[in-house]
Design the sequence.
């Protein structure tokens, strides 16, 4: 059973400490993120990309926006862009196992198995249950 990035889309909205009001229209990065999430939740992920990009533009360190844009790219099978966004999310929050596990799945799809297993192991060592299950199912340790 493969670890599913789509399941991780259900991640909770968390407050963005660096979100600031735009001087022109008052829209924050979190506002754009919430709007994007509504499109994702309604089954329209493609429409969310521009809103997530605006959230990132407002707050370049917004982990959740990068992570969820990576999930959207994954759902749209734009795997390289998904890897890029998961990598950026990892750079922002290297202690969050979800981006490692998600990037691992995309690497596996891209047949980059060594990179996939490395990411799964990192996620598993951080306590990610899905990554642990996946590695165990493959007879691999973390």
Sequence:
């Amino acid at each position: 059973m493969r670890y599913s990035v789509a399941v991780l889309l259900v991640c909770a909205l968390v407050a963005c400490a660096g979100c600031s009001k735009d001087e022109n229209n008052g829209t924050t990065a979190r506002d754009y993120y919430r709007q994007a999430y509504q499109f994702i939740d309604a089954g329209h992920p493609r429409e969310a990309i521009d809103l997530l990009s605006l959230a990132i533009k407002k707050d370049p360190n917004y982990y959740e926006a990068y992570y969820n844009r990576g999930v959207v790219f994954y759902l749209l099978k734009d795997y390289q862009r998904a890897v890029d966004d998961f990598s950026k999310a990892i750079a922002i929050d290297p202690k969050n196992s979800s981006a490692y596990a998600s990037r691992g799945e995309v690497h596996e799809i891209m047949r980059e198995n060594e990179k996939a297993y490395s990411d799964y192991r990192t996620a598993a060592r951080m306590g990610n249950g899905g990554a642990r299950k996946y590695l165990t199912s493959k007879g691999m340790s973390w």
Summary: The CA atoms of residues 29 and 91 lie 19 Å apart.
